[in-house]
Amino acid sequence: MKNKKLLTAAASTALVAVVGIGATLAYFTDSDETTNIVTMGHVDITLTEEEEAYPGEGLVFNDVMPGDVLDKTPIVTLEEDSQDAYIRMKMDIQATSGNITAEDLDELSQGLMEDITGTDTGWYLGGDGYYYYNAILSAGDQVTFFDTVTIPGSWKNNTADGTFTIQLTAEAIQAANITPETTAAGMISAWPAAEIEQYQNQSQN
């Protein structure tokens, strides 16, 4: 009988222990939540030219002669509230009147290209026709694309009274989390295609 009482007591103790463990697990359950505020940054650039004859329309030059050197200084500025960014430039030269030929414009464009991509300018002409600046810009930084345009001295009478335009487009993309394509010499030659698509989609919104 004594043994039976001991077994019963032991079983009761075991049952109490199980209930006790269950209760302890219940006390350790918990829940909580928090809210994180994330503010997205942005990139912001401005393309300006010094001494604009007609604000908003760029520089206008009249009575230009072959061999003339025109003062023209396009400057890209990364605005003070902007995140770090890479920049690139597109240049489109078009004849708008007269008999200036494609060969004439190619000669002008070649001279400009040599000036833009000269030693230590930081610019590189990629295979996609964009000029890439090979450094990251921080807020407030300014970069000059070129500072003069030299009219080829070899231009002939067919260019007389003709008109041409130099259209410049500046673009920027965030520097964070971007890995541009580079040449063997380490010059930036393209932006990754995925980032370009994202940039274009954002620009349209």
UniProtKB/TrEMBL annotation:
Residues 1-26 form the signal peptide. It comes from the Bacteria. InterPro entries: Peptidase_M73_camelysin, Signal_pept_SipW-depend-type. Keywords: Signal. The keyword Signal applies. It holds the Pfam family Peptidase_M73. The keyword Nuclease does not apply. NCBIfam families: cognate_SipW. This is M73 family metallopeptidase. It comes from Candidatus Blautia merdavium.
